[in-house]
Amino acid sequence: MASVSGIAKYDCIIIGSGQGGTPLASAFAKAGRRTALIERAHIGGCCVNEGCTPTKTMIASGKVAYHTRRGADYGIHTRGAEDGLVETDMKKVRQRKREIVDSFRSGGETRTQSAGVDVLMGEARFTDAKELSLKMNDDSVRTVTADHIFINTGERPSIPQLPGLEKIPTKYQLNSTTIQELDQLPRSLLILGGGYIGLEFGQLFRRLGSKVTIVQRSSQLLPREDPDIAASMLDILREDGVKVHLSTTAVSVESGPSGINGLRLVIRSPEGTEETIIGSHILYATGRTPNTDMLNLQAAGVSMKPSFHIEVNERLETAVPGIWALGDVKGPPAFTHISYDDFRIIQRNVLEPNLPPLTTRDRIVPYVCYTDPQMGHVGLHEYEARKRFPDRKIQTAKMPMAYVARALETDESRGLMKAVVDGETGEILGFTCLGLEGGELMSVVQMAMIGKVPWQRLRDAIWAHPTLTESLNNLWGFLE
User: Fold this and answer.
1) Where residue 37 falls among pLDDT bands split at 50, 70, 90?
2) Integer Cα distance of 202 and 210 in angstroms
3) First vs last Cα of the chain: how many Å apart?
4) CA-to-CA dists, residue 325 to 20, 49, 268, 314, 480, angstroms
């Protein structure tokens, strides 16, 4: 690092240490670039600290509680469990989560510093296209400059505009971060939003012992998914004891009488009928807001979309030379693995400019919703395929998980799998598995899509028995 007139000069500056920015900083440093990584909270970003790692750790606790109650189905009896008397120690659940997060985070910190990255803990604002003012966490102020600046500031939970919310004590208002720090189980959890976050937490806390009600404005859960998948997910959640209100709007919320269920949420049905539901806590799962408002992007000339995400091209470049954006801050799809692929694209294009550039064009995007059973998806949904390819013969194959031997053997046969294909070429356009280890089964089909393997090859393959994957022999018998 060189310093001139109190200004620290770098070759590369990364703002935000998410799953794209952190490996990018290390790659630049290892390539001999003087590199700074600016982070205001903790290394690893949302995924390691508030997202994937901690939530899936807690979901594992929920699954143990679920199977403890179901022990008798397998011939295993635990005193009291058959009556639902499974006690949850939220402090232990939280401690286990914290320990795993700390382990992941400390490993990232060690690798980043060992690579030679200058980690600056603070919050950055642009003063022009090459310069940043940095307010350090110790309240000091620094100025840093670089010819290459990469924005990886991610998103944060959105707060809904709901009358009465400002009067509710903050300890009863939860988002996807704060709910993970509870040391006591909510007696009754009200969830606004029926997307991936709302469903994961809803099922988790129902299994841990809370009463759970989901209020969803859309006519189906998981609005991105095909209606048949969403309908099956709805059946699963209701079977687990989660109450779900579809096509329902939250009108207002207020504090009721003091006690264990102190919140009163007024909801409105599609017919206009209003109803009051009560709960002890309320969770906002209504979307996420990009962390762009603190960056002073106008000083650098960086453009934003109407959603306040940063506008980039297929190489992740903004309209300002020398400034890139990667990860959730540039807009959907907002997944950790997409952020990591963004890192690969920028690393190749910046460090190896003589090679053909990588782009985001035609990426095959997979994702998993970690309900139980999991919902794994890759590629196009049926409605997307029909809209994108109106002149192609689009066919679908759907098979209940109850037809899968391995699912029956484990007594976890809820859900279904669905493939979307080109009926003339055999190309697999998309695949969804709402079922036991749905994410893992989806990944097998994703490999076929990457290799442009037609569905007939999966049908005719020899898969080990009795695996979940052998269902790919039988799925295609339902093609229509």
Assistant:
1) very high
2) 9
3) 63
4) 10, 21, 40, 11, 42
394 CB burial (10 A radius; 0-12, 13-18, 19+): buried
Whole-angstrom distance, CA of residue 126 vs CA of residue 124: 7
> How far is it, in rounded angstroms, from Cα 50 to Cα 29?
27
Gap between the Cα atoms of 254 and 256, Å rounded: 6
**Residue 270: phi, psi to the nearest 5?**
-60, -25
- The 3-state DSSP class for residue 150 equals strand
Tokens in use for 475?
């799925």
Q: Which residue has the tokens 């339902």?
A: 478
pLDDT tens digits, residue range 422-455? Answer: 999 999 999 999 999 999 999 999 999 999 999 9
Q: What are phi and psi of 470, to 5 degrees?
A: -65, -15
pTM attached to this predicted model: 0.94
Report phi then psi at 381, rounded to 5.
Answer: -80, 165
Helix residue ranges per DSSP H, 297-376: 336-351
Q: 10 Å Cβ neighbour count for 410?
A: 14
